[in-house]
Structure formats: structure tokens, C-alpha cells
Amino acid sequence: MSIDLRHPDRFDARHIGPRADDLPGMLAAIGQPSLDALIDATVPESIRLRRPLALPAAGGEQAMLAVLRERAAENQVWRSYLGMGYSGTFTPAVIQRNILENPGWYTQYTPYQAEIAQGRLEALLNYQTVVIDLCGMEIANASLLDEGTAAAEAMTLAWAVHRHDDARARFFVSQDCHPQTIAVVRMRAEPLGIQVEVGDHRDFTPSEAYCGGLVQYPATDGGVESHAGFCGRLQAVGALCIVAADLLALTLLTPPGEWGADVVVGSSQRFGVPMGYGGPHAAFFATREAHKRLMPGRLIGVTVDAQGKTAFRMALQTREQHIRREKATSNICTAQVLLAVMAGMYAVYHGPAGLKAIASYVHDSTRTLAAGLKRLGHRLRHEAFFDTLRVDLAGVDAAGLRAAAESRRINLRYFEDGSVGVSLDETVTVADLDDLLAVFAAGQDQHLNAAALAAELGAAGFGDLGRGSAYLMHPIFSRHHSETELMRYIKKLEAKDLSLTTSMIPLGSCTMKLNAAAELLPLTWPGWGSLHPFAPVAQAGGYAKVFADLQAWLAEITGLPGVSLQPNSGAQGEYAGLLVIRGWHLSRGDDHRRICLIPSSAHGTNPASAVMAGMEVVVVKTDALGNIDVADLKAKAEAHAADLAALMVTYPSTHGVFEATIKRHLPHRPRKRRPGVHGRRQPQRPGGPLSPGRHRRGCHAHQPAQDLRHPPWRRRAGHGAHLLCGASGALPDGPSGGGHRRRGGHRPGVGGALGLGQHPADLLDVHRHAGRRRGDTGHALRHPERQLHGRAPQERLPGALHRRAWHGGPRVHPGPARPQGRERHLGDGRGQAPGGLRLPCPHGELAGGRHDHDRAHGERAQVGAGPPLRRSERHPSGDPGGDRGPAGPRGQSAEAQRRTRRRWSWPTTGRGPTAGRRRPTRPPGCATTSSGRRWAVWTMSTATAT
Fold first, then answer.
1. 3-class DSSP state for residue 798?
2. CB burial class (10 A; 0-12, 13-18, 19+) of residue 548?
3. 299 close to 141: Cβ distance less than 8 angstroms
4. Distance CA 692, CA 576 (A)
5. Quick count: other Cβ atoms within 10 Å of Cβ 379?
6. For the segment 303-332, what is each residue's pLDDT rounded down to a tens digit?
């Protein structure tokens, strides 16, 4: 017998729950004799992969940690003063340890059930309050993906305000915006037919042909000026003024809302979230109450529970996709919750005075550097600035300066005209300032000292540009400034949430629930987390190897030759894939091919993404069991043959179906892939040159409050967790400006559609780690067991309403087909949610997204509530952009009522502990959210929260 020298403490034994003794009982529970039989009943023979995947051999946790240490050492963490929306920051240890590294926060599920998500919802309300107060706006959402896409969402909102009028299809962007923002806005506009004009906002004269305009505040090169005049000119012709702002700067500068901005967007990264080579980071989006029905993403509001206590809920959530579908103007159905929670807690920890002190420190450091640069003879492009200087050099050229900077391992921003940019942050020290002064003094005999220069400076002030209004006056921002107090507050909120530290979470959807601690451990190492996204490519050798490995493995798994890691959510991956298809057609001169066939059972983001990509959606019928109606598919494909661009299907479908006839559906047509059983099939096998899919099946925690296909920050298997595999040669690339790490021209229809060219990627080491640890054997063994232990316990779970299969034919859930309850509620087995919260059908008013409820913390808030969301406003029938049609007795359109009835039909269960129980009745007058979801929580005598 040979000796096995592998370490006995293996990953699969620690993280795959069932043991060999458990399998027979689990198989018997679902009526299958073996794992192979389960796969035979689940995965159609026509798409089965019969050869082993050519992946590296599985390794142990410690071996992979050693590899990752080597890769981290290959990333050179220089001092980067590049700016462009990314800044060094300190993550307070109390936040890093108790949120970022705490499974009580990083294993929570999307908070569709408010009664088991009260902690997160309150933390998100904190974040919304920070954004609202600092921006001077009336309402804010619970975060978006990144600043570039937030700006693009603001552009589409401006166009939607004008009801997509082609006569208003022009949008102005200031040349002083960050280059990646300009690239994203341009790309997002082109498929929609919006004409983007980039120029000097000072000379811009709008007309009624414009729907809006965008400026950066402060500018990308540091200039600070009032944009009140620009804003007034736009609003005089009915256009919207959009501002991309710096949250920290707004503690010292007049907030955009006070000089009339309609929308304010930006990134909260510098509020305690490391740069991580580009992210992910939580973007913010704030606007006026008048535009709340068009705002993308989610909004957390305040309500009162059945006992009269304050409670939190998602007042607006994913309305665009779930209700409007192909009429949607946005495919955003997500929030960067973990990042937003961190940024909000950063503000809670420091409070208004602490944030102002940090901003003043950054500004004073910049003023000190500016004084030294002037003394050296250099000229500053702007006299008013916050943290960024643009320097016109004197006595030295840019090449010589660059050599001096690189000799000290310093990255600066080099403009095409020879000027140099320097952006400071809270991490800068006096020694850093001395080094910068020495770099700019290259060739001179002067040796300036930063401390001496600072002693000569007076008090700072912005004059008319300075902020005079108060912010963060709610008591929550004045109570938790000690580590102990903040730790207790974080733990208090954590205790109000359900996570894997509390319970099994039997919710499948597209989101997985495992990130091993060993996978997360490297993500706080400086070699992975402290790299600036615009640092030279040569300084990111470790990341480059991770990218290359992951692309190669994903190409092998998908069976497709090209992989883009750019998209940073499932919906963005869908969008990128459709842009690839569109670009391919355009490259062939087939600009008329704009029809996209999508089954009616598809995710709501699918049709929204198609519309955003400039396509026209034609809906394909599905039967009562969720299967594609092949006859209808053929008929519509033939009817639109001349103009057909794509067929987009989810595989397996949203009903959990692996359709045996998929190859007949997809004869060399692009399609969307939903990952299934690694090692048992390849998406190329069903046919088609494109496979947007999420490479998360292997190891993922489910994300708190994010897109069901969008993995959460720092515990995801890669921020570009939506892979895009293609054979067309038109995969997405990034913006070529700004010294980006991936340079190159834009391909037709793709380009910088999704922000950074490689994608914000601080987490790719997780997937590299997991892939190497599991290898081909790990995947092949793991996923048949997932098919089993993800299904069998549904028959045995007390106190839960189980997700049921709703389909026929080959099934993920073996057994007789039966209706599926679309909402799944979890309790503690005693009929209550954690903390004893019992949510009612809310009839009252909801606060508009600000932490201002009188009883939110036991005392009266110090800020006023915005206009509440009343019942008529919480439903699309009260929304001019919502579903139209004759209103039913509950104020719903007929179609909305049919959707609601389908969504909330509740079966009499035939198996499990609730067998034979009567279906619960709906309480009268139950309110409906803007997404069409009921806020009643059904009560069962054995089971769940009410």
C-alpha cells in the first residue's frame, strides 16, 4: 500500500458537511439510490461532461496560504498619490475585527426578510444618513457598485425624468471628471442612444436638448469651485444637475444640495475601506424626493411593528427589474452592504467632529505641500483645493521628476501636458511630505522641511466655498466614539440578524453560503488590500498571476476560450455579455440585429440588461412548470430571424430546471449561464459562443443585501465574480486614459462599460486559493454532494417554510413537481424572529431614508424626516413610471395583481413537518412594497416569524 503524504486536515472534510455515514439516509429521503443516480436525474445526458477538468491538483489550506504570501510579495505596495477617486485610509481595528472579519456580518443573507435583518437595516440607515447629510440631499439609497456606474445611473435617471424623450437625449460631462467615470458614462449612453458631450463646464451653454449634466466636486485634478452657475443653467432648461462628490471633502465644503444639485454620486471608499486594487467599494447615490421612484437600488426606511416599536425595512427595493422588467431603465438590484456598513460605522466611530478633524488634517497636509511647491518655483494649477494638487513644473521635466519619485517608491499622476498630480489622504505623514518635497526639488539645492512650512501657515478656510451647515446630528453619531462603545453597538446590531453563526440558511437562489476563514485571511494583508488601482502594472505582479490563473481555470470550466473578469455583479455581467454580442454584430455591419429573446421566467435583471444594451426584448413563453415553450421559441425566432441578436436563458432556470432540450434551444446562440455542477458539465456543450456566469459555486458566503448574483466584498471569490467567457474576441476592456492598468482601444459596443478594465479585484486571490485547494477532484466530488445535502434537509427542517421545486422534467429537486413558495421565511423554531421582532402589514408612513425616526434610539432625533412614503407611493399604481393599466380594487393594475397572486400563492404542504396544514390567510389590507412584494409575513403554528 502506498503512503499518502497529504496533510490529513483537508478542506473538504471541514467544509462539506455530510460524512459518508450521512449519505445513505439523505439519499433515501429524496428517493435516490446513489449520488450518480441523483446526477442522472438532475443533469441531462446531452450536456454531461465526461472527461475530468484539467485543473490543478487540490491543495491544503496551509499550502495555499503559503502560495498567497508569495503572490502578495510580488505586489509592490508603493506610496501612491494618484487620486482619481481612490485614497489611502485607516480601517479602525474595531471595525475590521468586528465587521469585516466577523462571520456574523459577512455570512448574512440578502435582507428580503426584514424581521431577521434588523441589524443590517439599521446600519444601512446610518450609511444613508451620512450620505444625505454630507451631500445636503433629501434621500439616498443603500449604496451602489462603484462611482462610475453610479454616475451612469444618474444619467439614465435624468433621461427617465424626461420619459426617454429623444429630443432630450443629450448629456453633458465635464472634462474635469475622473477618466474612468467619463468612460463608463460614454459606454452606458451609447446603446441607449444618449449623446454624451465632454467639455469645459465653464463654457457650457445648455439647451432643451439636454437631459442633464455631470461635474466633479472637487475636480479630478483637485480644483474646487462652486458649480451653482452650471447647475442654474441646466435647471433653467429643465435638465438635471448631477455632481460626483468626495464625501470627506464635503465635511469642509458647501454640500452640492445647498447650491441646487439634483443628484449627488460618489464613492465611500475613503471612509475606512482599503483600496484593494480597485475595490469593491460602496458607491453612494443621493437625490431629491421628487425622483425617488426613479432611484436605482435599495432604500432603507423606518416603520413601526405590531407592538408599536421602531423597526426598519426596505422601503424601495429592486422595483425596476421585478416590476417593469423590459421597461426598466436600470438593472441595478444590489447594494454593497458590507462596504456600506463599514463606511457608515466609520462615520459613527469618528462622529461629525472626528470626520472634520480628519478632513482638516488631509487639507492642512495638502496646504503644507502646496506652500513647499511654490517655494520651489513650481506653479499650482488651482488656488482652491482640498486634497489634490496639479503642478506645472519649473526647473525639471516630468521624466526627471518621475525618475526621482520612483527612486523613492512613490507613484504620482502624470498628465499628458507635462503637469503632475498629487493627491494626499489620511495616511500621509510628515516624513511622506518631506519625501514629496525632495522629489519636486530634484536638481535644486533647497531642502525643505514640512514641519517648518506648516508652522508658517495660518488657519485654513474656503471662504464662500466653505461649509456652514451642520451634519450627522442624530445621537447615533455622538454616542460610540470609544472602541468599547462601538464594539457594543456593532454586537447589538449583529444580534438582530440571522447569519451562519446562528442558523442554517436554506435559501439557494444564485448565492452560495461558504467562505472559509482561510480564504478570507489574506484579504487584509497589505500586499492585497493596499494597492492603488491605477498603480503601474509592473507593481501588481501578484495580481497579474492571480488573474491569469483564474482566467485559465474558468476557461477550462466553461469550455470557452476567452474570459473577462471585468463585471462586478451578476447584472453587470449580463450587461457586459450583451454588449459583447452587440459589439460582435456591429463589427459585422449587422447593426439591425437588436432583438433579444428572453423567457418570461428569467430573472428580472435579464430584460433590463438587454434594454440597457440597446436591444429590444421579445418575451418567450414558459409553461406552468417553468419550462421554455419550444414552439413559441421557434415561432418567435423565425419571426425575428432577420433582426435576431441573441437568445438569453438562465441555465438551470430560475425554477431550478436543467432542461433536457437545451441544445435544441441553443444551436450556436449566445446565452446566459447559471453555474451548476462543476465537473459534470460545461456551458459550451449546450452550444453558443458566450457564457456570462458567476464563478461562485465553489466557495461563497451569501452576501448581505446584495444582488443574488453579486458576491459580497472580501468574502467573495473575486470581486469580478461574474465571469464573462466568449469566443467572439470582443470581450470588455477598460478605459485607456488615466494610466489605467489595462490600456487599449475600445472594442465596438464594449469598452469601459463597467468601470475598471480588469475589474475591482482585491478578492481574486480567494478564488485562486479555492480553485487550487479543490482542484478538479474537489469540484467533481463537492457538487454532487451539494445537489444532495442542499435538497434533502428541506423535508426535515422544523420552523421553516421550505423552497419547493416548481417544475417538471429533469429537476434539481428530485421528487414530484409541486408549487413553490417564492418567499422563504426563517424563524427560531418558536414562532419568532431573533430579537422577538414581529413585523406587521405596515399601514402607516415610512421615513424617506434618513436616520431620523423619533423613536429609533429611544429619544427624539435631531433632524427632520423627509416626506414619507405613503401607501399610494409604495406601489407602482401610484407611480407614473410604473405598471399601467386598469387599476384593481387594491390600486394595482390587472397585471400587477396577477403577478402578486402568482408570487404569493401559498400551497398546502404535502410533506415534512407541516404536512396537511391549511394555507394561511392574508391579513386584510396588507401593504405592498414598490417591488411588488407583500409585507405580510405568514404565520404557521409550527414555524416562522410573523
1. coil
2. exposed
3. yes
4. 8
5. 12
6. 988 889 999 998 876 454 556 676 766 788
